Amino acid sequence: MVDDTLLESGNQKIEWARNHMPVLSIIRDGFASEKPLKGCRIAMALHVEAKTAVLVETLASGGAEIAITGCNPLSTQDDVAAALDTRDNVSCYAKYNASRSEYYESINKVLDINPDITVDDGGDLIFTLHKTRQELLSGIKGGTEETTTGVYRLDSMSKDNALKMPVIAVNNAFTKYLFDNRYGTGQSTWDAINRTTNLLVAGKDVVVAGYGWCGRGCSMRAKGLGANVIVTEVNPVRALEARMDGYRVMTMDEAAKIGEIFITTTGNVSVLTRDHFKLMKDGVILANSGHFNVEMNLEELESMSKTVRTVRENIKEYHLGDRRIYLLADGRLVNLAAGDGHPAEVMDMSFSNQALCIRHLVDNDLDIDVHAVPPEIDTYIAELKLKALGIEIDELTTEQEKYMREWEHGT
């Protein structure tokens, strides 16, 4: 039997998030009256926390049967998972700190509903579907992917002709990545670092690896907290942009000697390695905001260490003999493993994209490929968000529309 205190805590978190997600609320009301997902079975692997629960409620209100688990071993909030599991037509298999075997066991339980639609954050659900549950592929109408890392994996599958289902790259919607990846990751990453370490940021040298939208957000918020920001990049255009935005840009070999806080946001492997750990100062802090815990080579860090101990919740000290390196949240997504994830107002847009793209998949037969979010969905969500914020914008006049269509005009 589930602890009533746990349920109360989960329900309170969900209520708070729901009250701050007005766009998804409008969509949920429409789903409740129209039932566009009636009879649809949806398998989900997402970060199981309060904002995700509001998305699940929205899909269930539209008539869907849902099975959900986590997409990261440390991002599930057990009270929210317990509350979700009490909802009609929802089965939740997520738990905090799941082992690798428990994690994939739960993924398979979710797939046991023989889904029509999949919803992924990072691609593990689709990966498992294609590797070990191929018998289910013929019944799949399509899927959605929430994050950059997952879209990378899907694009690779598509190029290798390994993808056997249509998937919508929700991450690539303007109303997702321009806000979720930038403002959401920026704020939630620093919220997690600050609440975990309780240390001053102002005056410190902060190294942000990667200047994609997540890296932009983390850099922007670090600057706002008074940090001296250093950006490392492999893309010359992004490196130039970071420099023009006012940050120092250098190689990680150089930055490793200077940095006091390191944040990885690349979605790639071995961004920080033995060679960098050797150069780091005593007391540096490592945090990861990429989806998987592979951006720092933790096996190399551990092999270099004389002792490893937990010195504070979500902080491990790796003692290298003459220096100490502190790792936050085991190198997992720091904003979710050591915090509450993105603000509800940002996830309002991201999960509205998810809900409307799922409906789009149900209503349409898409080719096997990685698809963009339909522009009309992006525009509709932006319009609803502006309305919720009480903001009105101009419209083109007839004369202006005509001018934009014509080409004869010159000086």
TrEMBL record:
EC number: 3.13.1.9
Keyword NAD in annotation: yes
Chain coiled-coil ranges: none
Gene Ontology cellular component annotations, sorted alphabetically: cytosol
Pathways per UniProt: Amino-acid biosynthesis; S-adenosyl-L-methionine biosynthesis
Cofactor: NAD(+)
PROSITE patterns given in the database record: ADOHCYASE_1 (PS00738), ADOHCYASE_2 (PS00739)
SUPFAM superfamilies associated with the record: Formate/glycerate dehydrogenase catalytic domain-like (SSF52283), NAD(P)-binding Rossmann-fold domains (SSF51735)
Positions bound to substrate: D121, E146, K176, D180
Cellular compartments annotated: Cytoplasm
Record's catalysed reaction(s): S-inosyl-L-homocysteine + H2O = L-homocysteine + inosine
Residue numbers binding NAD(+): 147-149, 181, 210-217, 233, 268, 289-291, 335, 342
GO biological process, one term: S-adenosylmethionine cycle
Other comment: SAH is a product of SAM methyltransferases and is known to be a feedback inhibitor of these enzymes. As a result of this inhibition, organisms have evolved efficient enzymes to metabolize SAH via different pathways. The pathway found in methanogens differs from the canonical pathway, it uses the deamination of S-adenosyl-L-homocysteine to form S-inosyl-L-homocysteine for the regeneration of SAM from S-adenosyl-L-homocysteine.
Role played: Catalyzes the hydrolysis of S-inosyl-L-homocysteine (SIH) to L-homocysteine (Hcy) and inosine. Likely functions in a S-adenosyl-L-methionine (SAM) recycling pathway from S-adenosyl-L-homocysteine (SAH) produced from SAM-dependent methylation reactions. Can also catalyze the reverse reaction in vitro, i.e. the synthesis of SIH from Hcy and inosine.
Protein name: S-inosyl-L-homocysteine hydrolase
